[in-house]
Amino acid sequence: MKAIHVECIFAKGPPGTLKSLAPRIERARPDRFTFVEAKREMFDIGVYAFALVRWLTGREISTVDAVTSNFFFQEHEQAGVDDFGIMIMDLEGGVSATIAAGRFGWTSHPAGGPLKIVLVGANGTFTFDAHNPKFELHTDEAPFAMPERHSLDPMGMWASTQRESNVMRKNRWQSFDQDPPGQLADVSAFINCIENDVEPEMNVRLATRLTEVILARYESAANGYSVKLPLAEH
Question: How many domains does the chain have?
């Protein structure tokens, strides 16, 4: 293993509503990560990506470089939180990792958004894409249209408010596997840990280290320098 790249971007929310083109000013120690209408997306969505990197490689993360930005949503801009970001990480053993994560709007992707992993090794490169293989359907069905804006959930984060906003299904891409991205397997593994007193692979100790990565990411984005881990050492 030489490098790993992960893209995890959610296609949810009304795009193109950002008011300002000014560069984003990040804070090293945010007071708040989530709001009703928006969340810090490199925290909220990015955690899936770098947790996957840490779990797949089994290697500790040693340095973090990050940039956060506002590209798409006025809700994020007004709340003072990022809607998109990128990260570069050094892992022990000379492995590097890059991550692109965030949220970019309902109509920015034929499905739910890019979910991709690229593994680079000494003898080859493998790409794993959650949307491939797939069926691409072309019919006389009406194309996806922007839903009504829900005042309590403009980003469409929850199934209940999606139903209230009459969110259309995106049917152009159909997966061979009808299990919503591994949810059944995930729930089964969770129940197994409870019933058989088995420690989960993603445990509290690992979550503690990932929390450090979140804090290091915002420190790097705010100050423009690499942040070394663990944080307790500096």
Answer: 1
pLDDT tens per residue across span 141-167: 888 999 988 988 999 988 899 999 999
Which residue range is the domain that position 31 belongs to? Answer: 3-233
Q: In what order do the strands lie in the sheet with 95-103?
A: 125-129, 115-120, 3-10, 95-103, 84-91, 61-69, 227-228
Strands 84-91 and 125-129: unpaired
Q: Which of 28, 95, 102 is nearest to 61 (CA)?
A: 95
Query: pLDDT digit string (tens) for 49-67?
Result: 999 999 999 999 999 999 9
Compute the distance between CA of residue 57 and CA of residue 176 in angstroms, rounded to an integer: 27
Distances in Å between the Cα of 31 and the Cα atoms of 34, 75, 115 are: 10, 17, 29
